[in-house]
Amino acid sequence: MARMKFLCDVERCIDCSGCVVACKEGNHVPVGINRRRVVTLNEGKPG
Predict the structure, then answer these.
(1) Which residues, including other chains, have CB under 8 Å from residue 2's CB and lie 6 or more apart?
(2) What is the C-alpha separation between 19 and 5, in angstroms, rounded?
(3) The pLDDT of residue 2 is above 70
(4) What is the DSSP string of 14-47?
(5) What pTM was computed for the model?
(6) Is the CB of residue 8 less than 8 Å from the CB of residue 19?
(7) What pLDDT does residue 22 have?
(8) How confident is the model over 6-46, as pLDDT tens digits?
(9) In 3D, which of 12, 8, 3 has the Cα closest to residue 38?
(10) Which of 20, 27, 38, 41 has a CA that sits 20 to 30 A from residue 10's CA?
(11) Is 34 within 8 Å of 22 (Cβ atoms)?
């Protein structure tokens, strides 16, 4: 399975997990299966 990453603007992200919900709804993913997971690295510091 291919792994994909996405970048977000840490100045605007409020850690609400709305992107996870939008991905599930947009791709009609069944309940109990997650296609996207948000992981914060280095406490959100760029670099």
Answers:
(1) none
(2) 13
(3) no
(4) ----HHHHHHHHHTTPPTT--S------GGG---
(5) 0.56
(6) yes
(7) 84
(8) 777 778 888 888 888 888 888 888 888 877 777 777 766 66
(9) 8
(10) 27
(11) no
